[in-house]
Amino acid sequence: MSEREYVYEGAVQELLNQRVGHFDGTIQKSQLLVYSVIYFCFMAIQLLACLILSRRLKRKIIENPDNMHQFRKLNYLYQLVPILIIVAQIVFLVLSGLITAFGLYFSPGIDLLVIVGPVLLNIILLPTFFVTTESEISRELNNNSL
User: Fold this and answer.
1) Rounded Cα distance, 120 and 115, in Å
2) Burial of 59 by CB count in 10 Å (0-12 exposed, 13-18 middle, 19+ buried)?
3) What are the φ and ψ backbone dihedral angles of 11, each rounded to 5 degrees?
């Protein structure tokens, strides 16, 4: 066995220097576990943010129907926080080195699912809550006007 150390250029070397994963197959499991828990907690934060903000949007429109002409603007305003959570999740994924660690720890295919799955779920949660809230608002406004 050679004692030679492999040095890669560019982003690969930067990710390896973060000491999340090593090419000998060992991974600092405690650091990987903490980063993974933080990474998956973004889903819970996103779920909570979408739930709270969609309910606040609904309450604001229902209590003051005059705001209906500004609905699209308010809708985008309330969706800003969940969008920022998605961006923070992606930035954390890249900067923490989890892409490399998951690639080394899991078999091909599963690593892609673990990397992309939570981000994709957060992206799906956002319109799900706000489209549902939009239909609830229109239904309640129609019932109130009748």
Assistant:
1) 9
2) exposed
3) -65, -30
